[in-house]
User: Fold these one by one.
Assistant:
Number 1:
Amino acid sequence: MSNQNVMATVDAASRWRAGVMSALVALVVLLLLASLGIGPVRLSPLTVVDALFGGGSDVQQVIVREIRLPRTILGFAIGAMLGLSGAALQGLLRNPLASPSLFGAPQSAAFGAVLIIALGIADVRSYALPVAAIMAAFASVFVLLAIAGRNAGLLILILAGLAISSLAGAATALVMNLSSNPFAVLEIAFWLLGSLEDRSFHHVILALPFIVAGAAILLSQRNAFRALSLGEEAAQSLGVDVARLRLLVISGVALGVGGAVAVTGTIGFIGLVAPHLMRPLIGHDPARLLVPSALTGSALLLSADIAVRIIPSTSDIKVGVLTSIIGVPFFLYLIKRERRALAGGVA
Amino acid sequence: MTVSAFLTAHSVNVKLSGRAVLKDISLALSAGHLVALVGPNGAGKTTLLRALAGLVASDGAINVEGEALSSLTLRERARRFAYLPQGHIVHWPLPARDIVALGRYPHGATDPARLTPRDTEAVLRAMRLTDVMEFGARRITELSGGERSRVALARVLAVEAPVILADEPTASLDPRHQIDVMKTLRHAADEGALVMVVTHDLGLAARFADTILVLSDGRLVSQGAPMEALSEQIMGDVFRISAYRAEFQREAVIVPWAEI
C-alpha cells in the first residue's frame, strides 16, 4: 500500500464517523422532541416547538416548558453523562466491562444521598445532597481502583465492584432500617429505583453544574485514553501522567454520577451499554468513543423515559428499573462474549 | 566518563517494594551506539531500562544530553526516550497506522486523524523502515505476532527520539524477524540514536551491539565490546554456562553451549 492509500483510509474513516455522528445527533433531537410531546397529553412535534418558544395555548406552554422540559433536559444530560462515564472508565481501565454501575458508583452515591436525607442534615432540595452523593461516588471508585491495583484484570475489577455495590446497598438498607419515619423509608425506596418523573428546574439547577463539570473533565482527557491503549507504562513513556489521569477520571465520573444520582436515584447500565453499541460503528479508539457514547447514553435514557410513559401499567414503572431489566441481560451477554478473558483472569 | 557521553547514570539505586533491585549502577553511553543489556532472569534489566526512562523512581543521577532527568517534564522526557515495553501490548483493536501515530504523541500530535505534515512524514518513514505500510489500515488484532512487533517498533521509531529503549524486542519472534528487528534498531543507531536493547539472546547481542552491559543481581558486572564483556569468565560467573565463540563474516558469534 502506498503512502497516499494509508492516509486516504484515515480520511475515509473520519468521513464515516462524521456520518454516524450526524445520525446520532438527529436521533437525539427526535427523541428530545418526542420526550417533550409524549405524556398524558400528546403534542405533535410542531406544537412542541411552538410551545417551547412561547406559542400555543397557556396549557401547552406549561406542559412543555415547566413539566416536560426539565425532565427532558435531565434525561438528556444524565444519559449523556452515564454514557460518557462508561466510555471513560473503559478507556482508563482498557476494559470493555468497566462501567460506573458495575463498580458500585451509583449505589454508593445513593447511599451518600440517603444518609443526608435520613439524618435530616439537609432537605432534599439543597446542594448538600449532590455533594454527599459525589463524595460517596468518589470514595467508591477510588477504593475500587486502590483495591484492584494497577493493570487489574477483569475478574478482580468485577469482584471488587460487586463487593462495593453490595456494601453500599447494605449501608443504604441499614440507614432505612434504622429510620424512624416509615414514610421517609418508602419515599427513599422509590427514589432508589431511579426516575425522571416530576422533576422541576430546581433539580436541573441542582444536578447540571456537576454533570457539566464532570463531562468537561472527562472530555479534556480524551486523547490520553488513546495513549493508554498501549498500557500504562507505554502511555507514561509517551508523556501521559497516568496517576493524575486516574484521579481526574475518578473525579469526573464521581461528579457526573453523583450529581445525576442526587436528583434521579440510581439509573444503571447505560454506561456499560452505550460504548458497546458504538464500537461496531465508530471503532475501538477509546478517545473517539467518548462523544458518541454520550449521545447514545442520551438516546437510551430518553427512549427508556419515553417508554415508561407509554407502557400501560397500573402504577408507574421507574426508568431505573427498565434500564436494569434491559441492561442486566446485556451484561450477561457481554460476560459470555468475554468468557475467555474472564477465565484467564487477564484484561 | 567520556566527553561524548549522551546518557549517563551515576550511582543509581532502585528499590521496588523494599527490595534493592538496582545497586550502584554507573554508566556512560554514547549516541550512535547500539547497547545490549543482558543478564539472567531477575537481574534488573527491565528496571534499569525503566529507571533510565524515568518510569521508575531512582536515587542517584541520570543525565541525558547534559540535562538531569529529574529536571525534565514528562513531555520533555517523552521526546528524548522512546520506550518499547515487553510484549507489544495493545488493549484495543486499533488500526496499525493509528498505533504508529501514537509515537507522535510527545510532539503534541495526540489525534492520529490530525497530524501535521511533519508528523505524517515521521509516521510514514517509521512505517517504511519497519515494512508495515501494506497493513497500515488493518487492525492490530488481525496481524501475526511478527507483524505486531514491527508495528510496535514503528511506533517507537516514529517518536524520532535520540534514545530508544527496547525491552526484549525480539522475544517470541522467529529467527528471520529477530534479525529484521535487530537490523532496524542497528540502522537507527547508525543514524545517530542511542539504542539500548534488553535481550536474552546473547548471539544477537554479540553480533549487533557495539557495547554489551552485563547485569547480575542488580549490579553492572561487565561492560565493553561484545567479546570482552561476555568473556569466558563472565559467562561462567553470571550465566553459569560455557559458550562457543567464533567470528563469522567479521562479526562476533557467541553460542551458549553447556551448563557449568
Note: The mean pLDDT of chain B is 92.
Number 2:
Amino acid sequence: MSEIVLEKRLKFTGISKFRELGLLVFIILLSVLVQLRNPNFLTLENINDMIKNTAILSILTVGMMLVIVTRGIDLSIGSTLALSGMVSALTVSANTNLHPLLAILLGTLIGTVCGCILGFLISKAGILPIIATLGMMNVYRGLTFMISGGKWVSAHQMPGSFKAIATNSILGINVLIFIAILIYIIFYYFINHTRTGRQIYAVGSNPEAAKVSGINTVKVLWMVYTIMGALAGLAGVLWVSKFASAQGDTAMGYEMDVIAACVLGGVNIAGGSGKISGIILGSLLLGILNNALPLINVSPFWQEAIQGVIILVAVIVNALVKRNVDRKNLMRRKI
Amino acid sequence: MEKRIIAAQKEFKLKNFFFQWEWMLVLILIIINIINASLSPYYLNLKSLIDATMTFLDKAFIVLPMAFVIILGDIDISVASTVALSSVVMAVSYNNLGLPMELAMIICLAVGTICGLINGLLITKFKELSAVIVTLSTMIIYRGIAYIILEDQASGKFPQWFSFLGWGYVGGIPFILIVFVVFAVIFGILLHKTTFGRRVYAMGNNITASRFSGVQVDKIKTVIFTLTGFMSGVTALFLTSRMGSTRPNVATGYELDVIAMVVLGGVSTAGGKGRIIGTILSIFVIGLLRYGLGLKNVPAQVLLIIIGLLLVFAVMISNIKINTGKAHKLHKTKA
C-alpha cells in the first residue's frame, strides 16, 4: 500500500517537474532562436531592460495566482493599477517633496481598498468573480479618468525622486527587480509554510470540504482579492515611476498578460494548484515574448493574436497533461 | 443542496405574479423616463423615444443568446471581439476583395457563426476549461485577427442602401426595431415554448442530471455558443451600417453592456433561472439610461461607472433574494 502511494507521488512530481523543465527548455530555445535573428537580444542592456519590464508583470502574477488558485479570476487589476498609479502621480506632482516611499505606500493603500471592495463583493455578497471584476474594472477605470480629468500626468510634472524609484538600485539590483524578488520570497514562505497560505489551496481544491473542516472560506477569499488589489496598487506606482507618465488608459488590457503568465506557468484555471517556481518561468516567458517579437520584426498588430493563441494553447496543454495524469491514476487503481 | 422543481406548467398566483423581478424593471424604467424627461425637455416625445431605441438596439441582438448562455451557468466574453472581427472581414471583403455587398453581409454572419462555433467546440471538447478562460483567450485572438487584417486603418465606403439597416424606417418604425422584435419573439419562443428551452433550464440547474436523463448537453451547449456568435454577426451588420465604417477596435466594452443587460434582466449567474421578457426590459432600462444621460452630456467615463455599479448591484440584489428565500424555506421546515 505504502509503495503504491509513494510511486504515485513520484509520478506526480515527475510530471510537474517535467512541465517546468519543459518550460525552461522552451525559454532557452526561444532565446537562442531570437538571438540568431537579432544579435541585440542577448546584450546585457536588453536583458536588464527585459527583466525590469518583467518585474511589474511578475509582481501582479503572484496575486493573480492566488486568485486563480481559489477558482476565481480578476479582470480589474489593469484598472486598479491605473487608478493607484494616477492618484500617486497626482499626489507627488502636487507635493513635490513627498518621500517616494510614502508614494508607494499611498498607491498600495489605494489598491488594497480596491481589492477589499472586490473581496467583499465576491466573498460576502456571493457575486461570481468574473461578473464582479468585470463591473468594478469599469468603475475603477472610470474613476481614473474622472480624477485626472482626462489629462496625462507627464514626466516633467513628477519630481525626480519619484521617477528615481524605477532607476535607483538597492545592493546593486534595480529597485523594481529588488521589490519583485522580495515579494516572491515573502509569498513563497506565505503560501508554502503558513497556515493561512495552505488554506488558500484548500479552498481552491475543494471549497465544500474546506468549509466543513473549519476553514473560514469567506475570510480566505476576501484576503486573496485584497492581496491582489494591494499588489496591483504597488505595481501601479512602480509602473508610473518607470514610464514617467500616468494616463487614463494606463495598463488597459494588462490583466490578460498577467493571466497568460499564470496559465503558462502551470496554474490550473480550475483552481487548487499553482507554484511560485512555475509563475516565475511563466512571467519570464511572457516577458521574453513581449520583448523579442518587436526585435525580430513581428508587426505590432500580430502581437495580440499571438498572445491569445499562446494562452489558448497553454490552457489546452495543461488540460491534456491533467487528463493524462488522471487516466494513469485510474489505470493504476484498477490493477 | 437546494431542491428545485422544474414544473411543466407553473400554477398561477396573483401574489407571485406581482412580486416578480420584471415589475421591478418596469418600475425602474418608469423612474428613468421621469428623470430623463425632467432633465431634458426634448426627451419625452414618441418620435424621439423611438429614435432613441436605434442608438442602443445594435448590441441588444447579442443579449438574447447571451441570456441562454448565462442560464446555462456559462459566460461568453468574446462577443465584442466577434463583432469586431465579423465587421472587419465584411468591410475588407467588400472594399478590398471586390465582392458584392450581399455576399459580404453573408460572410459577416458566417464569420460570427464560426467564431461562436469555435468557442462552443473548445468548451465542450475540453471540459476541464471553463467558458471564462476559453472565451477570454478567443476574445484576444478574434480582436487580434481583426487588427492583423485592418491594422490601424478604418474601412468604409459601403453602398448607399447599406445604411438603411441602421438608419432606415419601415412605416415610421425603425427597421432595426422591427428586426429586433422578430428575433426577440423567436428567442422567446425557443426558450419558453420548446423542449430545447426546457433542456437549457434543466442543464442550468444540474448539468450532470441532465446528461444522465438523456439530454445531449454538448450539442445544446455548442448550438447556444454558435447562436451567440451568429447574433454577434447580426450586431456587426447593424453597427457597421450605423457607423458607416469600421475599425478593429469597434464595439470595445460591448461584453460589459450585454452581460449587464442580461443580469439586470433577472437571469441568475448561477444558472437555471431567467426569462427573455426580463432581459428585453433591461435592454431598454440600460439603453434609455445611457441615452438620457447622453442628452445631458454626462461624460462616457461616468456612464462606465454607472453601468459597472448597476451590474454589480443587480447581481447582489438577486443573490440576496435567493439567500433570503432559502432562509425562509429553512425556517419553515424547522417550524
Note: The CA atoms of residues 62 and 231 of chain B lie 5 Å apart.
